[in-house]
Amino acid sequence: MNPFGRTARTRRRSGVTALALTCAIILSGCGLRLETPPPTEPVPDAAEVVRRTAVADALLVAEQATAAAASNGIRADIEAELTVIAEVAIEQAEQLGGEYDSGLGDILSEQSDASPSASTLAQTPRAVVTSLRDAATRTRAAADQAQLGPLGRLLASISTSQTQYARSLAQLTGAEGPALPSTQIPEPAEPGAEPSEADEASATPASAGSEPAVVPTGLSAEDLSALILAEDSAGYALEVRAAQADGTVRTRAYERAQVHRARAQAWALVAGIDNTDQDPRRVAYAVPGSDTTTTDLARDLELDLAQNYATLVGIAEPGTRAILVALLTETTLAAAQWGAPAVPFPGLPERA
């Protein structure tokens, strides 16, 4: 009798049992993986939602403008403008970081409807004006509310660009141009004064497009002093040139001089330094000589102010930037009236 036979048979049975258990575990693991919920997109934070919206708007404009430019019977000047608008919109989307791709698109596309695109919208020049108007409004509001200053500054510049291209295309097509935001610099509240019922009523938006005037916060005394000086010196220079010019140039230079002088005064009131030792305004300023034409001088002054306002947008606190964004747009459009070309990122010299 073999004394080791029973032990050998026991070992063989144990091996078979272990193998069976291993197979069962593997198979059960496969079952668990099959029952795991499908992957989902990460939940974006507020800044990412703002960024994605601006990117989607820019890409929609680009796609729509490209399709409209390729349509039959379009005028050459309109086609050229649409082509530029498409190129600018793509560049803006890229500077915003482009479309977000989690890598789950192929998996999730079968589970949800496709996002609207220009293929489902009208592909006409007038429709592009409408898309630019809508994008400018959303992007301008986002610039005011963005938590990150640099993102707010970029959005303000893009909104200005969208407004400018919407105006130029509207003029070519006869479409309705964009409504411009108010450039009325808000008056500072009296120290210790409580808002009245009338003040509260006036601060309540009458419609989705209206916004209460808010004094920018987060700006230093040096920031405001530099802005006051820039506005006042621009007004002085244009006053001098208006006195030396004639005709339409004289009228336009004088009108813009008054605008800038008034803004310098309004910002001095906001800063609380009007007629104080801290008021940076002077009696006179140096003005370029006759080798610089009035048109060139006016254009450069407006562009410099646009750059100043763009810088302040990046400094001011969220929710208080609206007037700065509006003035970035207004000075950019004023510079265009003096011959400044449209650019993808107004007020941002580093992106020129």
Task: Characterise the protein shown here.
Among the domains are: 46-100 and 117-173, Up-down Bundle (Ferritin), CATH 1.20.1260; 216-347, Ferritin, CATH 1.20.1260. Helix content is 62%, strand content 0%. It has 11 helices and no strands. Helix 2 (46-69) packs antiparallel against helix 5 (125-145) and helix 8 packs antiparallel against helix 10 (294-315). The longest helix is centred in the N-terminal third of the chain and has 31 residues, at 5-35. The protein is globular, with a radius of gyration of 30 Å.
Give the low-confidence spans. 106-115, 198-209
Oligomer: single chain
CATH topology of one domain: Ferritin
| Name of the CATH architecture of one domain | Up-down Bundle
What is the strand tally? 0
Radius of gyration: 30 Å
Tally the helices.
Answer: 11
H and E order: HHHHHHHHHHH
State the helicity in percent bands.
Answer: 55-70%
Name the CATH superfamily classification of one domain.
Ferritin, core subunit, four-helix bundle
- CATH class assignment of one domain: Mainly Alpha
Protein traits:
Ferritin; single chain; 0% strand; mainly alpha; 11 helices; 352 residues
Task: Offer a quick outline of the entry.
The protein is mainly α and 352 residues long. Helix content is 62%, strand content 0%. About 6% of the residues have low confidence.
Question: How is the topology of this model organized?
Answer:
Elements: H1 5-35, H2 46-69, H3 76-95, H4 105-108, H5 125-145, H6 149-173, H7 197-203, H8 221-244, H9 247-271, H10 294-315, H11 322-337
